Amino acid sequence: MKAVVFRDPATRAEVADVTLAAPRAGEVRVKIAAAGVCHSDLHVKRGEWDAPAPMVMGHEGSGVVVELGEGVTSLAVGDHVVLSWVPPCGECRYCQQGHEARCQKVATVVAPKGVLFDGTSRLTLGDEQIHHYLGVSSFAEEVVVPASGAIKVRDDAPLDVIAVVGCAVATGVGAVLNTAAVEPGSTVAVIGCGGVGLNVVQGAKLAGAERIIAIDVVPEKTHMAVQFGATDRIDASERDAVEQLFELIPDGVDYAFDAIGRTITTEQSIRMLGLGGASVIVGLPPTGAKASFEPLVLAEADQRILGSNYGSVRPSIDIPALVDRYMDGQLLLDPLISGRRPLDEAAEALDDLETGGVLRTLLIP
Fold first, then answer.
1. What angle do CA 197, 315, 82 make, to 5 degrees?
2. Is 39 among the catalytic positions?
3. Is 89 in the active site?
C-alpha cells in the first residue's frame, strides 16, 4: 500500500510502497477514508519531539473496517470508525478507573516505541521495520490498529469530515467539558484559534460559558472564532494579550486555555486568571520547553494549572457522542477543514500547516 514515511527532520516525508501485515489478536485493519494533518505531525517533522523513525506519519483519521483479528467482537467488517490515538488497553489502573486518556500502556509502549500493544510493528519497507505513529499511522491507504483504537460511529456521518473528531475536536472540546469541567456562566479565554483552539471555543459554548475571548496573532482566526461561539476577540499582534484581556475582564477569567503550547502562551494563560481560576494546557510544546509562574500568587489566588492530554476523553464514549453532536448541529466541523489533498501531497500539506494559513488539511488516499 501507499504510505507517508518520515525518516528525519532533514529529509522530506515521502510516499512509499509499504507492506502492512494482517491484524493480530485484538486488532483490526481499516481502510482510510481521510486523515487530518495536525500540529503534532508538524512537531515530528521539525524534530521537536523524540519519535521513533522511520515511521508512517499521521494520528487523526477515519475509515471502514475491512478485516478483524482473532477475538475481536466489538467491531464488524463494514463498520465506520474514527481512529483514536489513545487506544485504551483496558487493563492498567488508569483505564480501570475510567481515565482512558492516561492509559499506561499507551504512554509507556505504544507512543514512545512506535509499536502496537504486543511491542511489534505491522509495517515494513522491504526488510526494514517501519514504526507506527501513536498507534495509528493514518497517512496511508490502510492501517492496522488495536480494536479499542477504532471507534464505531454512525454510518450516516460523512467520513471525510468526521476524521477531525479523532484529534482536534476530541482534544479541544474534551479539554473544556472533561479536563476543566467549565461551569455555565464562566468566563473563558482561548489562546490560539487553530484547529484545536476553535474546538475549545465551541466546547466553551457547549458548556454555557458567558464570555469566551478568542486570542490570536492572526485576526482572521479570531473572526472565525466568533462563528464557533466566541463573544470577544483579542488581536495579540497589536500589543500584550494579557493587558487587552484585563481591559475586557478586569478581574481576570475563570479559565484560560493555552491551545498553542509555547512557553509565552502558557505563561500568559496563567497571568490571565482571576481568583480561583484554572489555566489549562492543551497545546503541546517541544520536548524540554519550560514555563515559569509565581507559586505564591497561584496559592494565594487559589488558582490551578491543569494539563489536558487528549481532552481527558473516554474514546469509546466521547467520540461517538461528538459525532452525534455534529450531526445534530451542535458542533461545527466543516469550517475546520481548509482543504483536501491526495496522499502524495502530504509533504505539501505539512508545509501549508507550517505557514499558519490553514486549520486542517485532509489527506484523501
1. 80
2. no
3. no
Question: Which one of the listed residues 132, 167, 193, 279 is annotated catalytic?
Answer: 167
At 117, which amino acid appears?
A: F
Ranges for all domains in the chain classified under CATH 3.40.50.720: 172-309
Kindly name the residue from 38, 89, 92, 193 that is annotated as catalytic.
38
Range 272-310 burial, b when 16+ CB lie within 10 A, else e: bbbeebbbbbbbbbeeeeebebeeeebeeeebebbebbb
Report the C-alpha gap between 67 and 29 in whole angstroms.
Answer: 5
Query: Contact 87/149 with Cβ under 8 angstroms?
Result: yes
Superfamily per CATH, domain 172-309: NAD(P)-binding Rossmann-like Domain (3.40.50.720)
pLDDT of residue 63: 98
The pLDDT of residue 197 is 97
Per residue in 4-36, pLDDT (tens digit) is 999 998 888 899 999 999 999 999 999 999 999
Known catalytic residue: 103?
A: no
- pLDDT one-digit tens code per residue, 199-218: 999 999 999 999 999 999 99
- Residue position matching grid coordinates 492543551: 282
- Residue ranges matching CATH 3.90.180.10 in the chain: 2-152+333-364
Residue whose C-alpha cell is 489533498: 341
Beta partners for 278? 255, 304
Residue 38 annotated in active site: yes
pLDDT digits (tens, 9 = 90+) for 131-169: 999 999 999 999 999 999 999 999 999 999 999 999 999
Annotated catalytic residue: which of 43, 74, 99, 223? 43
The model's pTM: 0.94
**Residue 158 confidence (pLDDT):** 98
Q: What is the CATH number of domain 2-152+333-364?
A: 3.90.180.10
The confidence score (pLDDT) of residue 129 equals 97
